[in-house]
Amino acid sequence: MNQTRDAHPPPRAPSSSREAEPDTPPCPRCHDAGFLTRAGPRHAEAVVCRHLANCRVCRGTGRHVHRDSAGHDVLAPCPCGLAEIAARVQLYNRAGIPPRFHDSRLSAFRVHHRSQAAARSHFERIRNGFQAGAKGVGLFGPPGVGKTHLLTGVAGWMTLTRGVEVRYADFSGLIAEIKRGFDQGLGEARVIEPVARVPVLMIDELGKGRGSDWERGVIDQIVSQRYNAGLSTFFATNYRANPGQATRGLASELELEESLRARLGVRVWSRLQEMCTLMEIDGPDARAEHTDRAATGRHQAPRGLRPVPPRPR
Ligand SMILES: [Zn+2]
Ligand SMILES: [Zn+2]
Question: Which ligand is closest to the CA of 79, given by its number?
């Protein structure tokens, strides 16, 4: 598995015990962030750095007895910030970020196209001034242009640095999870509400799936509730915004029809347009960079399979 490493700038809110001991060198493991992230078996995971267990004030409990102005001993959070960091680590671990995006950072987002530069700047502005209920972003673009990197970069920052509750999910996985919940006899309150009410929801690969009426009903319900409650919603999709919108190399009539509006229905689409700033990203497919196709200009099919030419862009 991937090695644990530091992923995000140190949180600002909890004051570090090291501020009180300026001569202490920074922790070599977490650089004083207080946490590390790693690729877990199912999701990206964060852990509290073990240097906090050695805190001389709270001895790794996060709380200490403090004498207030009236001379009473009260239990208070330790200035090392452990209690707060532990809470944020839990938020990160519940966010559902895919394992390989555990170290996504906006600063590491590689720009090859002006639309990628514009998207990165927009996400940096969100990162620097995010308030609950702020407008989200809808990212349109082909695979491999960094849509998931941008979403997970902000999701990691929101949970670990700002303590905001975020839920990231890819659309097919979310639909499958909701279906499983209903199949198990769980009610809407257990199945839909946690997704509909989370302060920040990020849906990747929106529209992907069978596109059944049931799926449309589920996404309609989630988006409607979030719209009415004024909650921040982000999404990314490989589909086009509108039918007939030819951004690059359209191959078939079917693709012309495969717009997000057609996949989700007019009502959901109309709400998403109000809830999100819509942005198109283009650029080379980063996932293809290391493949034979990129090296030779040809797609190498495994033996016995017919080679598939790369999709025109
Ligand atoms: Zn550390
Ligand atoms: Zn402490």
Answer: 2
